Amino acid sequence: MSMPRILPCLAATTALLMSSCASHRPAHAWPDASALPAHANLPNPLLHWDGSEVQSPQQWEQRRRPELKKLFQHYMYGFLPPTPRRTQFHNHGVFANALQGKASLKLVEIQTGDGKAPRIQLMMLVPNQRRGPVPVFLAMNFCGNHAVLADPRIPLNPGWFYNSCKGCADGRSTEASRGSQSADWPVDEIISSGYALATFCTNDIDADRKDVSDGVYAWLAEEWRDAKIAEPANRGTIAAWAWGFHRCVDYLTRDPDIDGSRIAAVGHSRNGKTALLAAAMDERIALAIPHQAGCGGTAPSRGQIGESVERINTAFPHWFNAEFKKFNKDTARLPFDQHCLVALCAPRPVLMSNAQEDEWANPRGQFDMLVAADPVYRFIGVNGLDTMTLPPLGELSGGRLGYYIRAGKHSMTAGDWKVFIQFANKHLSKGGGF
Ligand code: GCU
After folding, report:
1. Is residue 389 one of the residues assigned to a domain?
2. pLDDT tens-digit series, residues 307-349
3. How much distance in Å is there from the Cα of 276 to the middle of ligand 1?
4. Total structural domains in the chain?
5. pTM of the model
6. Could you read off the pLDDT of 41-75 as tens digits, one per residue?
7. Is there a domain that residue 66 lies in?
8. Considering only CA atoms, which of 363, 361, 383 is closest in space to residue 373?
9. Quick check: helix, strand or coil at residue 15?
């Protein structure tokens, strides 16, 4: 085992004073869900809340985008925890001999706030053959960093896991879980394509269960109680995870090995819902790949195929806020649909990738969301979708709004990563389309 070098940007543990602390703002007085008008068809993203048309790209940027961000947090995801006043990055090792010397393994701990705040363990693989800072896939994983790559230097994640994570027992990971997901993460190919991989686990931020006694909101509640600020009621685990993406971006934009202008957010399924929300809410993310994200992410809430809003709110009540439950039987009253979340990413590229047998995630409805987001891309002067018909199986569409569907089931495979890399190559290459 090589001795850890000090990360160049971390000559010592670096305390970073974040530029602003988004303090807990009072909720906007939006009407109750039952008082909202019904839209049987998709709401027009280019109409303001008051019904007036968005007149210019500038108005989109300055008025409609912030309004949509607030609406999504109020009626669906819950608020994203604020940007911390203080973040520290701890170097837990840089090992230049990972992947038979092709990559450096970096272990970075991101600490927000005081000692009790959640700490995110970011595991990175950076190509050793590089001429300068490299673009990065930033991906959230389900089963721990140690499950992505079987390298004994990666600590076992001590948090709570579903037992469906291979090698986990009684909700905890064991040595048997090392590398158990490596088939889904073709790290050699990512590295040889010139990308770094940075990955972190959901449960460093908030465990994926109904229990709200731990995670970032529990910490915030305590902080705010001490500060005599009311405990937040408007919370959701997907928003917490998206906040986790943002904290990793805080680090990546400061790592000299990484090109902070070329960060692609990736996630599968519930993690894909999160990757899209994270990109919609933070312009530092250059590209989003919500893979098979489905309901509550890339599929229409008004959709008739696959998972419904009522079903997702019942099976996973912690993912969304209390307000979203009010739309269970009345999705037509939602003042947006998921095309508006995609539109919040404009002009940045978004790829929705799917599997033919994964009807639960409504692949066809996802394409409809891209079609409905496309006018916003055009309105601000860039291309969106390059086809209005569903691309054939196995063919990645062109345009900043990409779509891909392959044969097979709900899963993230090495073949899917080839498409992620293809999309990123097209849109993140230096001097490329972005
Ligand atoms: C369930 C859930 C989906 C989710 C998926 C996953 O199937 O209903 O909404 O995307 O789990 O995250 O794997």
Report:
1. yes
2. 999 999 999 999 999 999 999 999 999 999 999 999 999 999 9
3. 15
4. 1
5. 0.93
6. 999 999 999 999 999 999 999 999 999 999 999 99
7. no
8. 383
9. strand
